[in-house]
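thought: fold this chain, then report.
action: predict
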Amino acid sequence: MSLETVNFATLALQPGDRVLDLGCGEGRHAISAYLLAEVEVVGLDLSLDDLATASNRFKEFRDETATNKTVHWISASGLALPFADRCFDKVICAEVLEHVHEFEAVLREVERVLVPGGTFAVSVPRFLPEWVCWRLSNAYHQVEGGHIRIFRTRQLRRAIERRRMRYRSRHWAHGLHSPYWWLRCLFWRRGDQVWLVRGYHKLLVWDLMKRPWITRWLDKLLNPLIGKSLVMYFTRIAA
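observation:
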């Protein structure tokens, strides 16, 4: 079970698709794509530790008899993807661009490797919940590898549309998570020593593992208001 930000129904994976999970981290979207369809997935990240975790986690789900789907784990930079032009049908970039100084260079690379008609799914922290976190704690975004910017929806959409991408749709995700991160930021130094932070974390784990109707309903209710992530979908158009 993993915490997915991208909606795979909107991504609409097709048999034979090549899928790039750019900045895959510990592999949540890459593994989900593998489980959902007969696709070839590439999980790419700079962190060797995260890739090792992703590879080990994937062993629990790998179907040794499957010949029509696979996952490859690659360490590389999103600023210079080691792939030929127009070689992926779908590209996922979830919670990555807020960490990258030259984020528009990453978008240029996405445009280059995505086939015309292919789908680009991108997510970043939503402005309001992220702004609250920054106001509550400097340490939240000043840690090594932390967030270096807060995107506005229009800013990111326009940057992507300049890369021969046509906007399709958007949604918000993880409404239940925003209050948790506000609490974490408010009690940053004490962290899990605070019973409220510890208790809320247990709630999120319970929600992830059990998927009870009450938290699913509450998450859907909160997403339009304080969803932690902004998720947008684009189609690569021809030159």
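thought: worth noting. The mean pLDDT is 96.
final: tokens above.
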